[in-house]
Specification:
The protein is mostly helical and 589 residues long. The chain is built from 24 helices and five strands.
């Protein structure tokens, strides 16, 4: 216990334990452990030191953070006179498997409305033997399992891509342990990964073969560190709100900064690939929002059933199909490995061609599967899912006005169809109308109206999860097309910056929803216009600033304004709000 950071005191009974606990400052974590406990140190670490849960227990041990201290005191009061009974006072009639005092207290706290986390221990031992033979058996079981080996295996994410699982994690877990033993934090490793990726982007921007080779190697090393930070968090249980936010946002920043570095390097060699770089960013961002929208729409669906999902589950039972299916969707490990290798041996243009083809195929594959699941699934979407989709839609004042006062068109597929009509008209106008045409403004207004009508009704339809991705594609593609067709120097890099700022806002929205804190405040969405408002502004800018560099300056100004507003609010929220962290667990060994 001392090795885990606890001050150890011995209590003779529950009454004395309550007295000792009352003397501990209210802002401290406390734990109760049966003195007969036999088990691995890492079992206690998992049960008593994880910062994400107010209360947690393993057989023979219980912990409570400050927010659960009052519940623990109440449990002690109600349990003091019932230690010898089968069920503590006020607890449910369900069987009590852990009949130690900590186990009884955990049941009482659960019954009182305070959820007590019970981590999966896998092969780790945590037991309270009641006689000598049982103690010998527990000690033998403990000796047969290598505590440190289990801890290392558990540090690795349970479900990951082929490249990460077989080429990175077998080594990065040892880097994580090295970092833990030297007192480094996951946030420091995350920051090191970002800095390495930025240096890689700078190397790519040199436009030399040596720079490209160095960029590829540095990008791979950045990915190793990217895996290490999560493994370090799981290895040492150093979870934090700030860490979750940094890990989520820095991945996007690293990849998009590297795209910009490749584009700058190509420009030094006389090849303009900014349109390809922006296209790759747009495609990747749209892929992600499809993932987020589908998952949120079906996060808590009722009566969930689908023949397509059943087929997918059967395929997962065949080992090799799991890895093939994980590879073809081009997850971050495979994607970064491909980018790194192609950067070192080819040109930026080829890198972007490969990215666009690979990501387009992956997007078609995953979207087709989700469409089939949605059409064959008999499920009722909940109010929570509808609210999450509405928040992901990022509707601004114009769309909200139309949604409040405009028509509500019935139909199971009306929302995605209306959104698609508006997006199609907008993109078609951007492609067909001459740059600077006033018709583009009318197309943007029509898009804003369609956007409002699409979200006027709760998004509970089978395909309503398509609405946010359609909005993202409409906004991002419009900016890309107008910048590419403007033939104005610097317009595409400025558009790259604008889409980066807006995409950050959209990712930030996703991570807030996943953390259970809801979308960014409405004042922020209104300030930056919503997707339809920004699209209309860009259309107006294209119609007004058609000469020289004015369009570039206008796009740059808009990008800086959006970036400042969303970054300041995002940093304020994640640093000060105490929002819960979201981390992927390692698989129990």
């Amino acid at each position: 216990m001392r090795s885990l950071g606890f001050d150890v005191q011995v209590a003779a009974d529950v009454t004395e334990a309550a007295r000792l606990l009352s003397a501990v400052p209210a802002d401290r974590r406390v734990a109760l452990v049966d003195p007969r406990f036999v088990g691995h140190v890492h079992a206690l670490r998992l049960g008593l030191t994880d910062p994400r849960f107010p209360a947690a227990t393993v057989p023979g041990a219980l912990t409570a953070q400050p927010e659960a201290r009052a519940a623990l005191v109440r449990a002690l009061d109600t349990t003091a006179e019932a230690v010898g009974a089968g069920v503590p006072t006020g607890a449910p009639a369900a069987p009590v498997t852990d009949r130690t005092v900590p186990g009884r207290l955990a049941v009482t706290m659960d019954a009182g409305g305070i959820p007590v986390q019970r981590p999966e221990l896998g092969s780790l031992v945590a037991a309270v033997p009641t006689d000598a033979p049982a103690r010998a058996e527990a000690e033998s079981a403990r000796a047969s399992v290598d505590d440190e080996a289990v801890r290392l295996r558990s540090a690795v994410k349970a479900h990951d891509g082929f490249f990460t699982t077989f080429c990175i994690s077998p080594y990065s877990r040892y880097i994580a342990r090295w970092c833990a033993r030297r007192g480094l934090t996951p946030n420091q490793v995350t920051t090191a990964s970002l800095l390495t990726a930025l240096i890689a982007a700078g190397s790519a921007a040199t436009g030399t073969r040596g720079g490209y080779i160095a960029a590829g190697l540095l990008l791979l090393f950045s990915f190793v560190l990217d895996c290490t930070d999560g493994q370090l968090a799981r290895y040492s249980l150093q979870y934090s709100t700030m860490g979750a936010w940094l890990d989520a946002t820095f991945d996007r920043a690293k990849e998009y900064a590297y795209y910009a570095g490749l584009a700058l390097g190509a420009a030094r060699g006389g090849d303009d690939v900014w349109a390809l770089a922006l296209g790759a960013m747009v495609l990747q961002a749209c892929r992600h929002v499809i993932d987020f929208s589908f998952n949120e729409a079906n996060h808590d669906a009722v009566a969930n059933s689908s023949p397509t999902a059943a087929l997918s589950d059967r395929l997962d039972s065949v080992g090799w199909t799991v890895w093939v299916r994980r590879m073809i969707v081009l997850p971050i490990g495979e994607r970064w490995a491909m980018i790194a290798v192609l950067t070192a041996v080819t040109t930026p243009r080829i890198v972007f061609y490969a990215l666009l083809i690979g990501c387009a195929f992956a997007a078609c594959y995953t979207t087709a599967g989700r469409l089939l699941r949605s059409l064959t699934r008999k499920a009722e979407r909940t109010d929570r899912a509808a609210r999450a989709l509405a928040e992901l839609a990022d509707s601004g004042p114009l769309a909200q006005l139309v949604a409040a006062h405009g028509p509500r068109i019935p139909g199971a597929f009306s929302a995605p169809v209306i959104a698609l009509v508006g997006a199609g008209a907008l993109i078609a106008a951007a492609l067909q109308q001459p740059f600077g045409s006033k018709q583009m403004i009318f197309a943007a207004v029509f898009y804003a109206i369609c956007s409002g009508v699409a979200v006027a009704r709760p998004l509970k339809g089978a395909l309503d999860w398509l609405v946010p991705p359609i909005f993202r594609a409409a906004e991002y593609c419009t900016v890309l097309i107008l910048a590419a067709r403007s033939d104005v120097p610097g317009a595409l890099p400025a558009a790259f910056g604008l889409v980066s700022a807006v995409a950050y806002h959209h990712y930030d929205t996703v991570y807030r929803i996943r953390g259970g804190t809801g979308a960014p405040p409405q004042w922020l969405v209104r300030t930056i216009g919503g997707h339809e408002g920004r699209t209309l502004v860009v259309a107006v800018l294209a119609a007004v600033f058609t000469q020289h560099s004015a369009f570039t300056v206008a796009l740059t100004t808009l990008a800086v304004a959006v970036a400042l507003v969303v970054l300041v609010e995002s940093i304020r929220f994640w640093v000060s709000s105490g929002a819960p962290a979201v981390h992927d667990e390692g698989e129990p060994a």
